[in-house]
Specification:
HerA_central, eleven-stranded mixed beta sheet, 15% strand, disordered C terminus, 2 domains, 498 residues, three-stranded antiparallel beta sheet, single chain, WH_DNA-bd_sf, alpha/beta, ATPase_Atu1862_pred, disordered N terminus, Rossmann fold, 42% helix, globular, 21 helices
Amino acid sequence: MGPAGGTATSRIVQAQIVIGQDSSGKDIPVDLEELLATRLLVQGNSGSGKSHLLRRLLEESAGMVQQVIIDPEGDFVSLAEHFGHVVVEGAAYSSAEIATLAARTREHRASVVLALDGLDVEQQIRCAAVFLGALFDAPREHWYPALVVVDEAQMFAPAVAGEINEDTRRMSLSAMTNLMCRGRKRGLAGIVATQRLAKLAKNVAAEASNFLMGRTFLDIDMLRAADLLGMERRQAELIRDLQRGCFLGLGPAICRRPVSVKIGPVQSGAKVASATLVPLPSAPPEEMQALLHAELASAAADRPAMPEPIAAPAHDAAELVQRIARYEDDTETALPETADAEEGPGLGVEDILREMAQQRDCMFQPASTLYQMFLSRCRAQRVPSRGMDMAGFRRTFAVVVARLDRLDPEMKERILHLGTMVDDDLLAPFLAIARAAAEGPDGPDEDEIARVYGTNSPGRIRRLLEHLEKKGLIVTREDFGGGRTITVPGISAASVDG
């Protein structure tokens, strides 16, 4: 049975929507059929009206074509109230459920807002990549035309590697490239919006044939926008002088020559607070201080506690422990038969991993690079790797980097059991925190967490701790003296110097 609203052979009736007016007050239309075939790139600094433009485009085309919105900030969920979009909260579903929802979105031609504001940045990127990948991989009989809007596209298709995990970046970049380069034959018309053209991958931006360029102030972005619009470089200053809500449009779906567009009004509104100034409260300082401190201790005690970690299946932890033990036993079988016994035992897998872990900034390298380094050293030392795959290497190396061998076997097994609930890219810092909690109150400082996590960014460390806390693996308490106490349920507490 096909979805309500049409069959696979149905086509959109040629339709135009009006997104705004030019300087003389003349309506500027957008040809939807042409847009589906040629895609759109929107650029504008924060406050330029980029989200307002996307909202206008979506509102005017609602009911004419299916719409899928990747919404990292939750700005477009209000479309559900006015136009019947289905809001999918990314934080509420597993990866498999997200892929299934995307497949059903294509099958039933539902207009959907994928709201990602409940996730941290890296999880937002992974969730969007899974959703876009499932849209792209839908069976041929579900290739209905759809507008796929990706706000803050520089997050999902970065021009250069950033602080996110390399595997996540590649996964997301592949999904965005498929959307913009190969999506047209599958009925997917990508509309990508970015604050910075220089931060957006060129192979993603280059596939758009329509452009709406808003205000930007950096020379590199102005020059790139001017090149895309076919303007001379000395005219790039016009982009800096654009007013909020005004864009320069060009493309077969808009106009054959650059035209200035002032975006029209919208019906729905973003959930963000208005930037309009409002009067401050008139309460005297003494009264305000009393309001802030009233029953502070009891109010803090009433805040909900973090949930206990969900117990993982026992066999998962046991399998992990057995796998690590098997790799440790490689030491006994790694020597070639010609080895001289007087020189002592040769290197084993565990020794190679320890040598790698002792290298300065080893964790700042991509996991794929470390894995290839490990295989090369095994071959050079004539040590059998016993078929350790990438996933096994990452988790085993995390155990070594976190120095769990300093603990007694019972505590080590307990921590590894908790580690089965942690993603591979977060395992090393979690194990280091758990080890510190087990050893006593003098836990690792942020430099130690940065070392095992492979980052110099305090913000990334903060997001790591927030993510682990959301999963119920740790509980943090900070004071204004700069100290931070981390409790690992089932383990002791560790103080982390901020």
